[in-house]
Design brief:
With 787 residues, this protein is an alpha+beta fold. The protein is built from 26 helices and 11 strands.
């Protein structure tokens, strides 16, 4: 493979106009597709086949035209009078009436929208239920109790709910200008003395994340690159090529919305990963190119050798990331599959750009590639003339105390993993939003005044098509009594049937064959008891179906998100098995060893457990005060494991391939470790520092998912790159010695030899073999060539 990549790099260097034009053409085509066919993103976290989705399908069958829970762009405006007053007081009532008028006049409202004040809605709702009870011979007292349970007005008359639904297909279609207008309307009512907040899917919006995080990350990365290369031009190359890759990747993701649903978090996650690996991959090849300029005057050959050696490591490192991200498709979760494939596509583009566009740009720049020098580098040498840099000093320091360092790393990372036992997973809701948002304020008001269960309703779909005509009402009542008697249920009642109220009594259309029973719990959607109640409902389904003759299913937003969380947890072992197995085989091919891939995998497990433990401590338990404590988003562990595994193997490949390269050329394992750190520790440190700051910058985002992912990925890089790969792995290699490279003869014959070290490369007759610590230095190009 090294030979093929070397030819590719040399060709790209010499024929740079064609390669640059090709990438420009690719970008133009993708932008055209995105502009012409892209659709809005959504946060439809559903999984085909889960019980709540099956119940939703039953609901759609019984109630044609019903809307998916994720597509309901409803808004709840919470209004509260000052202490000691009610909304019915004349001054407050006037403000509420004007608020209702203003809400009805907002953009994206239906022409025939009906919005009424809380008092009027409560009175009308109670009257309707009482009339229905009288007409059916039911209990009027029970009807009034049910009306009070779902009333939009509190008993003291101080707090009320105004509800409506935007005239859009999904919440993603609600425009930012519409939400700004809603804020203005609420501000006017606030100025009149009322407390007014809003929540619900239609009040959240899908604001595009700002560019501040990317700008901060890129700025710090540029500074690290300047310090690393000592050249302004060279420092800019990884940034420019990475940005091009991210633009191509994100534009492609946008274009893919034409054929698949993609969540609003996908693009920002793809940006994080694409930007980080794009900079790193280019950095490794560019650093190796700098090295080769010390060994040959032929720049095209130097580029070829750099792409053949460092490029081979990039390919295999990229493959581990691609495996980890693409394997998310195997667990059968559509939205997670879309996220994984989008991020994988961005990584794939980053690999291609580092192998083709970077050599082409180097060909275009020629001798100016390392221009704009800001410092010189004068390395110290030992008595043999070998460079003694910080990488050498670190490797020798680790080699003097490997047992102690292994114990310290294992104990320290194990201790950081302890908070993981408190892990609680959930999907973000208004009740877990930041406390300064109107969504959280509205949620807190509803929970305090109406009870926390008001925002966590469960919906039981009842199918009565198989029971005798005239017995439907009794069957529905049986389901209601059963649900109401479960622990933790505040109220259960029929909130809708599919009977045609305009049909002639006694005709088939007048008979209800389906009903919706709303179950209000005593707790909120993020509480652990939500899972217990859903389990109780599911466990009792068979019994109530036998007693009533109906078929039932539980759905609703709370049920769907709970089922998705369960499916994600079940998918985790399968996913881990797939990525670890495939990556282990890949690493055996690269390192021709069993113990090296094994230690790499065990090191990953340590770093990911410590990362999850730290993330739980900071984001769920609220340690350090960075954020308010709240459950982690359900898919974060699965996605984090995939990303961290891929990135961990990146540093394993980049660092240990240089150690193996020295070992292949005859050094003992201890000497090879020192030589590997001499030539790669500095660039790996720079790459890890860049990736850390790129991820950490996304902590500044308001979105809870992005904030927690940015934190977790940044911490993961610190743990894995700086602790596991730079301390634990070399210490284990020292302890294992030459046994590190043991591979059974029969397995050696089976595994393909891909020559990652570039042993078969034709380096030319004029190639100089002197060690010059060529990874990174501040010499000018002319000085490098003269050496």
């Amino acid at each position: 493979m090294a030979t093929l990549l070397a030819r590719l790099g040399t060709t790209a260097y010499r024929r740079w106009p064609f390669f640059i034009a090709g990438w420009v053409g690719v970008l133009a085509v993708i932008i055209g597709l995105a502009a012409g066919f892209a659709k809005p993103m959504s946060d439809n976290f559903t999984i085909p086949g889960i019980p709540s989705e099956q119940a939703a399908d039953l609901q759609a069958e019984l109630f044609p035209g019903s809307t998916s829970a994720f597509d309901q762009a409803n808004v709840t405006v919470v209004v509260q009078a000052p202490q000691g007053e009610t909304l019915a007081d004349p001054a407050n009532a006037a403000v509420v009436d004007q608020l209702v008028v203003d809400l009805a006049g907002l953009p994206q409202q239906a022409d025939d929208v009906q919005i009424v004040p809380p008092g009027q809605a409560a009175a009308g709702q109670e009257q309707m239920l009482v009339d229905q009870a009288k007409a059916s011979g039911g209990s009027v007292e029970r009807a009034r109790s049910n009306a009070a349970a779902i009333s939009p007005l509190t008993e003291d008359g101080r707090t009320g709910l105004i509800t409506y639904t935007w005239d859009v297909e999904t919440p993603a279609d609600v425009e930012a200008a519409t939400l700004d207008a809603l804020d203005d309307v609420m501000d006017q009512a606030r100025d009149e003395g009322l407390t007014v907040e809003a929540n619900g899917p239609g009040a959240t919006g899908f604001a595009t994340p700002g560019l501040a995080s990317e700008a901060i990350g890129i700025g710090i990365a540029l500074l690290v690159l300047i310090l690393t290369f000592g050249s302004l031009v060279a420092a800019g190359l990884p940034i420019i090529t990475a940005l091009i890759g991210v633009v191509i990747g994100l534009t492609g993701v946008t274009a893919m919305t034409a054929v698949v649903d993609i969540s609003s978090s996908t693009s920002i996650l793809a940006t994080m990963i694409g930007l980080a690996v794009g900079i790193d991959y280019t950095l490794f090849i560019l650093a190796r190119y700098r090295t080769e300029l010390h060994h040959t005057d032929d720049r095209a050959r130097a580029v070829g050798i750099a792409v053949g050696t460092a490029g081979s490591a990039v390919v295999f490192a990229g493959l581990t990331v691609l495996i980890a991200l693409s394997a998310l498709a195997v667990v059968g979760i559509p939205f997670l599959t879309a996220m994984g494939l989008a991020a994988a596509a961005t990584v794939f583009v980053a690999v291609l750009i580092s192998l083709t566009l970077l050599p082409a740009v180097l060909g275009m720049l020629g001798r100016k590639a390392f221009g704009g020098q800001v410092r010189r580098y004068a390395p110290k040498r030992d008595e043999q003339g070998l460079v003694v840099n910080n990488g050498v000093r670190w490797a020798r320091w680790v080699g003097k105390r490997p047992v102690a360092l292994v114990l310290v790393v294992v104990v320290a990372l194990g201790a950081l993993a302890i908070p993981l036992k408190e892990l609680q997973l959930a999907f973000p809701t208004d009740s877990t939003a930041a406390s300064d948002t109107t969504q959280r304020k509205a949620s807190d008001l509803v929970s305090a005044e109406f009870g926390p269960g008001r925002e966590a309703p469960l919906l039981v779909v009842v199918d009565a098509r198989d029971i005798a005509s005239g017995e439907e009402g009794a069957a529905f009542g049986g389901v209601v009594e059963w649900a109401a008697g479960l622990p933790g249920v505040q109220n259960a009642q029929v909130v809708g049937t599919n009977a045609d109220p305009s049909a002639e009594p006694g005709t088939p259309a007048a008979a209800a064959t389906g009903a919706l029973v709303q179950v209000l719990p005593e707790f909120g959607p993020a509480d652990a008891e939500a899972q217990e109640l859903l389990t109780d409902l599911r466990d009792g389904e068979a019994g109530v179906e036998d007693s009533t003759g109906t078929d039932i299913g539980v759905t609703g937003l709370t049920a769907i998100t709970t089922d998705v969380s369960d499916r994600l947890a079940d998918a985790l072992p399968v996913y881990l098995t797939i990525i670890v197995g495939l990556a282990f085989i890949l690493l055996m091919i690269v390192f021709r060893s069993i113990l090296v891939p094994l230690t790499a995998t065990l090191g990953f497990l340590l770093s990911v457990l410590a990362t999850l433990g730290t993330t739980v401590a900071v984001f769920q338990l609220g340690w350090g005060g960075l954020v308010e404590g709240q459950p982690l988003v359900s898919f974060i562990p699965l996605f984090l494991i995939g990303v961290v595994f891929g990135l961990a193997m990146d540093y394993q490949v980049f660092l240990v391939t240089r150690i193996r390269e020295a070992r292949v050329h005859g050094m003992s394992t201890p000497d090879a470790i020192v030589d590997g750190f001499r030539n790669s520790a500095r660039v790996v440190t720079a790459a890890a520092a860049i990736m850390t700051v790129v991820f950490a910058a996304f902590i500044l985002q308001d979105d809870a998912i992005i904030k927690s992912m940015g934190f977790a990925l940044a911490v993961a890089i610190i743990f894995d790159a700086f602790i596991v790969r730079m301390v634990l792995i070399p210490a284990l290699l020292y302890l294992m010695g030459d046994r590190s490279w043991w591979l059974p003869a029969w397995l050696d014959k089976i595994l393909p030899n891909v020559d990652v070290e570039g042993e078969r490369l034709d380096r030319g007759a004029t190639y100089r073999d002197e060690d010059l610590d060529g990874e990174l230095n501040g010499l000018s190009d002319e000085e490098s060539v003269r050496v």
